[in-house]
Amino acid sequence: MNLVIIDTDIFSEIMKAKDNNVISNSMKYIREHKKFTISSMTILEIVKGFRKIGNEGKLKNFISRLNHVNVLNLDSVSAEISGKIISDLEKIGQPIGLADSIIAGIAIASNLPVVTGNYRH
Description:
The protein is mainly α. It has six helices and four strands; from the N terminus they run βααβααβααβ.
C-alpha cells in the first residue's frame, strides 16, 4: 500500500468508523505506515465542520488525536502550485474551490497521490 495524502472526505469516514471497508483499509494502511498523512487544509475543514454544528466534544477529541497523524502544511512551493491550479481551472470554467486546490498543491509538491471520494474535483 503506497503512502498517500488522505482527503477530508475519506479522513472523516475513517474517524466515523462505520463502513467496514473503510475500517479494513485504514487498518491495513496504519499497520504499514504507522500514521495517516493529511494536509493542514483537512484540519481546517474538519474544525470548521465541528464548530459549524456546535460539536465541541468531537472537536476537542479530533484536536487531541492530531499527534497521531502526519500533517503536511502549505509552504511556498505548494502555494505556488495551488495558485496555478486555481488559476488554470478558473480559466477553463471548472473551479474546484480553495481547500481542494490547496490539498492538490500540497500533494503535488510532496509527490504523493490523494485518496478522495470526490472524483468530480
